[in-house]
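A common beginner's mistake is to predict each chain separately and then try to dock the pieces by hand. The better habit, illustrated here, is to supply every component at once so that their relative placement is modeled jointly.
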Amino acid sequence: MTFGTMLSTMAAGMLKTILLFVLTLLGSLPLGMIVVFLKKSKFKPIAWITDIYIAVMRGTPLMLQLLVWYFGPYYLFGFSIRGYKFTALLIGFIMNYAAYFAEIYRSGIDSMPIGQYEAAEILGYSKIQTFMKIILPQVIKRILPSVTNEVITLVKDTSLASALAYSEVFSLAKQISASQTSFMPFLIAGIFYFVANYVVAWIMNRIEKSMQYYK
Amino acid sequence: MMNSDNEVSKMTNFSEETVNTSNPEKVILTMNKIQKSFDGLVVLKDINLTVRHGEVVSIIGPSGSGKSTLLRCATFLEKIDGGEIIYLDKKAVTTSFSGKVCYTGKAEMKEIKKYFGLVFQQFNLFPHHSVLKNVMEAPVNVLKRDKAEVEKEARILLEKMGLADKADQYPCNLSGGQQQRVAIARALAMKPEILFFDEPTSALDPELTIEVLKIIRQLAEEKMTMVIVTHEMSFAANVSNRVIFMDGGVIVEEGDPKDVFGNPRQERTKQFLKSYKEE
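With all components supplied together, the output reads:
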């Protein structure tokens, strides 16, 4: 296998990795916000269930969670779904990352001084207006460095999809390396992850800088 | 549509002004038998306070006397445990014979909240908004007023505060005194009937204190109704129509500043004022 074919075979995997990454972010960033609201719910059972959910998501390996999401339906209900693999991966990644994002959001929301809420209340803002116009914009600025960390971890964590033999870049690298007895596929995969994260860090840095107009 | 709305608001403003001038004694705020405790610690004991239109009332007293809590109760940041709060003709809080405290419904509370503004000790400006936006946001978002019109008024207010050139700056670039003046402009932009100040200069050094007090004095001359919790004794003596001395959750002495400062009747008042003279 020439370097060219190796690269073009892996390019398909790279696209799948990027797709998994983007869809996970699109799902988990907003879901994390919903999780925070559930966790802060005044109805205690909901808050407890959310706490358990976060504890399980953070307390067990993501690879194990992926296996459970994929094989769970078969072992629990005795049926398997065709073409379910990508959906199972997405559910697993989104549920896991939403838990982490929820905790980051919570830390940001809890760090807001009470004076901001009181000023908004005196001016007659509704609860929703206070959150959307006063609290959230400031929280985003505060949590951005933590979110960047998590997003970079996600780029690398997509390689866990290889546990379900999903043909993203890391799975392909393993397969090609074994069949061709070559180290080259791993090198290509490594460079791919590095470049992807470099781009992510650059974008996040730009967003951070755009918010530096106030302290 | 927009125009007719503006006309309506102008008309209501006009009619209100007529009422104000024809009846300068109009009662803006009535607080009756206000009770408040925190975890069993009684902070306010049967406080009565009436504020009329155009009055400037200063509340003085040692730390922990309950004066800030009284303001926070009047502005609904704290819930009272007993008593009555009435703004103009609207009963915001009532207490039944059995002692059950009842706050009025959400819709009416929203209307009542338009009657007052509060200036905080720590300013509490919105750091992510420019000075101009800090002043404009509430009238636009809460009162749903026309943006261009609000901006015109906001710029006039900022000019009055001596901050015309700071409109596009962010709060973090301003001095404490400038930030507090923005906070005053932000409160005034809502056109409140009464403005509360919770130790407005306690976070400021003497020089910056002067510039904020100057603004409050100016508002007093314009007959703005104000209740000011303060530690600035000479300011309270010069600017207010009435001084209230609080200690231990009760009003110990109340009256004309000349009397309270010049000839206090209560021993506790004398003792408290003496500590300032020795400073």
